[in-house]
Amino acid sequence: MMKHQFCDNWTFRMADENDAKSVLIPHDAMQERGRSADAPSGRSEAFFLGGTYCYEKMLFAPKEWKNKRIMLEFEGVYPHARVLLNGKEVGGCNYGYSTFRVDLEELKIEEENIIEVIVEDENHPNSRWYGGAGIYRPVWLLEFPKTHIEPAGVKITTLSTSPAKILVETAYVGEGLDVENEIIYDGRIVAKAIGAKVEMEVADAKLWSAETPELYQCHTTLKRGEEVLDEVTANFGIRSIEWSLKGLFVNGNSVLLKGGCIHHDHGVLGARTFDVSEYRRIKRMKEFGFNAVRSAHNPLSRAALEACDRLGMYVMDEAFDTWTNTKSPYDHGVDFLENYEEDIRNMVDHDYNHPSVIMYSIGNEVTEPAKPEGVEIGKKIIAEVKKYDRTRPVTAGINLTLMFLATLKNNPIDGGGDAQKRKTEKMDSTAYNKMVMKNGKSMTKAAGTSFVASKSEPILKELDICGYNYAASRYKKDKNKKIIVGSETYCYELGKVWPMVEKYPHVIGDFMWTAWDYIGEVGIGSWSYAEGEDAFAKEYPWLLADTGAFDILGNDNAEAGLAAAVWGARKTPYIAVTPANHPGVVPVQAMWRGSNAIPYWSWSGCDGNPVDVEIYSAAPQVEVMINGKSLGKKKTRDYKATYKTTYEAGEVKAVAYFKDGSVEESVLTSAHGKPAVQVTRENHTEANGIVYLDIDLVGENGMIECNRDCVLNISVEGGELLGFGSANPKTEESFLSGSYKTYYGRALAVIRVNAGDCKVTVTGETVDAVTLVVES
Predict the structure, then answer these.
(1) What DSSP assignment string belongs to 3-38?
(2) What is the pTM of this model?
(3) pLDDT in tens, 341-387
(4) Comparing C-alpha atoms, which of 104, 95, 50 is closest to residue 76?
């Protein structure tokens, strides 16, 4: 098989318009449409507008394709896709997160052919968060000989690790053929075997784990005699997984999942998925101690899985947010029963060879299993997963309190799964999240009662591992009864929850909500200083959830500092400071954030204003000094100590005193002098010329200035601006406009560099222009 990138030279237009523009795939049509206060998508999807979109690309079919099989592979088209060849429909997909393929059997050989993709995104809301729209993941052209290895046709299974034995299975089109397999490590062939289903032993094997992400390649050749008919190379890792009440074991070693949930968007790029974007996010999380991600609430992209394989990150890959009960009027629950079997097969095919994937989740906070017929649906989904993969455990993110509520005659949030009832009575995800915010603590407490928890027993019995959403109150109570993973907990409770994870072997890890901020579900984590603003139900122009250990640009905050302290990713104390530029105003706090402090001591014009200095450390005692003056020593509680003080430009120092007598220090320094723009190219593995640029306002000493935000304009010569913006959660600005106001001194641009050098210029009314030459 030959695999060709099929992402350039597409055109895009609205279905009811004639004017088309050239676009690069991946592409997010929803970003093109823009936002409106009265958009039907509402708070869930950040007030973005919908529509029906047409993508077109010309494809010349050369003479040599006459006796070949040609397919297109779409990694993701959201939400519904129809694919046409020369005006005739040849395939499509009803689940926006599935990889799917279409055969181009009726190509006109030695002629130009029209590939058309119709994306239907008229009905909103169709998601509880921002899904984007269009061909938002890459497209590939697959070229097969008539006799060939099937797409995703090579599957590698670890049979044992000591000695290292693997099973290689190859599905192909044809009869009476030979299959040769070569296992390659670091460019060397380390094992060979012949057969379409063959066991192979790998001597001196390097095992894959989050700590040692060693990867192999399996090169499979399909032959007739000495004639090579087809060949495929698949990456894989040799690793085993075991689970029991004694814990989770990878390669026989006990593992605790230090996890974070992530949605799929990439901030200033919208939903567009580039390899470097996924790599960058996983790498950033690793730096702060994460070793696991939960895809929320849909299968991860190929690029994300490859990044997890390479960098060492365990994955709980989640199939669905909804089953048959819709959570938004037009979500996947509308046609779930017609599609779930294909959706599951696509996910498992997609995941199978990725060693990072250690568990499947079949749903998030679904309430159907509160009734017997819902349990039967769950059993069918589990059986479908096991049909294709019996090597990995199956879980689900079960909210015990919500399941209990679903058993009540007048369920306050479910709406009976009736889409029309949701529309008329506003039983949507916003209503659900608002209820949770109002009763969040009592929800966790309720989950701890046997009566509430008993309503989830029928589905929990079917799962290999019980995923508990906001139910840490059951960890001790379910000792020696269930294998548990904290599939979703408040990020700021990590300091309280993690000691329980370490104490109880049957609890295998914890996933915070959330690791990374995202578009949509606006304001669910906000600490708002605006007068009269509701704690949860944020109105236009709110854009972001404003939650997470990292903002949409990838900048860490207090909750990342907490994670790093709890998980031992850093020994030096992490200093975070609440904004000093809102004196006398008490912020309205939403549920999904525990602190709005950020790691900067640079608030121009704010001397004397009150601030909280938060110190995150595993040390039992810390001390804070401002410009050399000690504020005293304090004991940490749940890895945190807070000092209420006033801002004074200069330096804040934190000292951590450990039990063994060791001492660690950290310092934050204020910016001084005239602010300037600093443009820095990030050092990440790049693909297709995609480059990330950090754009910051800094003082003459290079420190970021948080209180002199201004509108910046960016222009690109010799390349294309893909997205530019800040982490401001409430704004009418567009990531596509090339103009955006910094937020706490920071912004981010993503560009695509053409052949040759690219010149990027950033200007602003209060700063001098800066130009950076980006080499291709």
Answers:
(1) EEE--SSEEEEETT----EEEPSS--HHHHH-B-TT
(2) 0.97
(3) 999 999 999 999 999 999 999 999 999 999 999 999 999 999 999 99
(4) 95
